[in-house]
């Protein structure tokens, strides 16, 4: 495909395709294709003009060559686009907003005065009904009553232009609030949607990994502990505890047995099952998640709820101020000046927009935040707990040596280990499978059914002999495997800096797989920056040995560390810290981190981690870079700073308007105009990027 370069500077290219405009689907495909290319840091596609802007590092000519290979109809490119892309949603709400503004001002300049008056009275009925329902049905004096009173008094005094302006602004606020909610739900649903490339297909008694797209209704697949269930289906064998929080919001796992129906997007926390696929449609899964969570209070941050409650609490004071103004001045005009200043408009408009803007900015920085309340928790957090493996250390450790016992062959031991580990992917398992692949070792299914013991290891049978692989505690203490005679020295010769995976066959230690778990190069600097950002207690917890934990803790500079801990011990530590009054963040990537991620005020998962961890976490870092934690803390603090500014501005500015109205400096219409104008200005300011705004204020 040919492209036309419209503008170019170093590291940035704007180009157009030979089309007048893109459909939403084509724009999404191009954008996600561009983002998948090596060196591309940012890509924006404009569907109306069929243009795209790419910010990149690396070879320009190679990038242009790849762009020219784009084919919108390619199945591989279609698969890059996540379920439920929000481009169409954003476009529809932009059109609604623009249409509402054009209609309002068009009617003001085109329609004759009598018709505008009738229109104002007709529009007012909805607000008056809401106010009366709030007053008499709910028996509450809240914002709808104030809105209805302000509109009604304006109409009764002949000031229908002011009434129209108030109704227009309230409509804009409702639309933006709805937009915020839909966008939040959409982002949350998409982050929960399954991102699995392959599944285990059971056919003729053998399990083979096949691409997700090849599964059809009627197929039987194997789903194991820690995995997200990829399709709706019926359990044909096995028992499991299923976490259905993605659908019901309830985090307590539900027991499921043979014959039970399970849903795509839920998580298998305990057990293994064989599942007969009933529905293989990804769209139905996404729509189901949307339907289940769209009313979830989880999405609303505490500051948004506080804004609503504060707005309602101010209503009696506004009414009281109006009555007092009339009693003191005996001037209906001055009293109306107080009534026209509705604190709720600016509070209810700016807060959702501010949170939406912050979540969007997080997304731009490769941070998926599942709700505004988690940004609030991060801003307040003083304690942060790190898992070690795959978090402070590299997500992809490497096998550096295989120490064998009883004359076993290294390659054969690696092949057996890979055959077992590929069923339960995590960073260590991935390293073993990768090493077998590099050596060209084909590891067909040679074992019987396998059992996964969380944070310990895997057990199975090969040729009638029990095979276990995992930690020292699991293999040597729980399973009581024996080290062959006269070979204990081999263990003491293994360098201390290596992590160890123990493999035993028939009750005897057969091999120790040594893995290098290199520290992330940015980890020490990130820990320092997190201290500077306000974290007073940074803790590392790991199931690894004490000497490895001590070395990593010293190198990265954490305040304290705990070694050889179990998953429940991590969660208990988080719970204790919360009980002391601390706000706690947990960061992990494995199945064993899931209890602590759930227990924390905010759980953060690394994108390359286990599916269970990603599903349970409140925030996901979609880039392999710990500096994103510093960015997340910065954005959270800037969000709270903006929210507090909005509070001060709304209260201060509107009190000023009330004062000027009482002294006769401005008329009610002017008061309403200034109030409405300031509300719109505050809303527009709330849409701007937090970091840009902060840079401007510091310059």
Description:
The protein is α+β, with helices and mostly antiparallel strands. It folds into 5 domains: 4-81, Alpha-Beta Plaits (2-Layer Sandwich); 92-187 and 300-355 and 636-698; 198-293, Calcium-transporting ATPase, cytoplasmic transduction domain A (Distorted Sandwich), CATH 2.70.150.10; 367-393 and 520-624, HAD superfamily/HAD-like (Rossmann fold), CATH 3.40.50.1000; 398-516, Calcium-transporting ATPase, cytoplasmic domain N (3-Layer(aba) Sandwich), CATH 3.40.1110.10. It is 51% helix and 20% strand. It has 26 helices and 24 strands. The strands form 4 sheets. Strands 5, 6, 7, 8, 9, 10 and 11 form a 7-stranded antiparallel beta sheet that branches. Strands 12-24-23-22-13-20-21 form a 7-stranded mixed beta sheet, sandwiched between helices. A hairpin with a 2-residue loop joins β1 and β2 (12-16). α6 runs antiparallel to α7 (160-192), α7 packs across α9 (282-293) and α11 (332-339) packs parallel to α25. The longest helix is centred in the last third of the chain and has 36 residues, at 627-662. It is elongated and about 105 Å long. The model has no long low-confidence stretch (mean pLDDT 82).
Key descriptive features of the protein:
5 domains; seven-stranded antiparallel β-sheet; Alpha-Beta Plaits; elongated; Calcium-transporting ATPase, cytoplasmic transduction domain A; 699 residues; seven-stranded mixed β-sheet; alpha+beta
